[in-house]
Amino acid sequence: KQWYQRRVRGSRSLVFDESDVEELLWLLSDDSALNVANLRPSKVHRMFASRACRSAVMIGTALDHRQMRSIVDHMADMEHPWNCPHGRPTMRHVVDLSRIS
Q1: Span 26-51, pLDDT tens digits
Q2: Model-level pTM?
Q3: Is residue 53 a contact partner of residue 89, using CB atoms and an 8 Å limit?
């Protein structure tokens, strides 16, 4: 059976091409990748990572206690809460140095 692509779908400036379809087919053929989270071509992963960072709380944004608690609670459910998908740190450790001595 042959498969024909009639048009290229994209997300804003992102365009999917033949190599993305090939990567998806390879992921589907890999027995170890039979997990929905693993069935994303790398270009799709980068697109989601970019969208997540753009909609994230930015440094300097004032948050009330409820918003802070909600973020911390959600981070407890994440697999890798210490960094964003791009590798940037998601939290900062604050220490009172007078308590260490």
Answers
A1: 877 776 656 666 677 778 777 777 77
A2: 0.47
A3: no
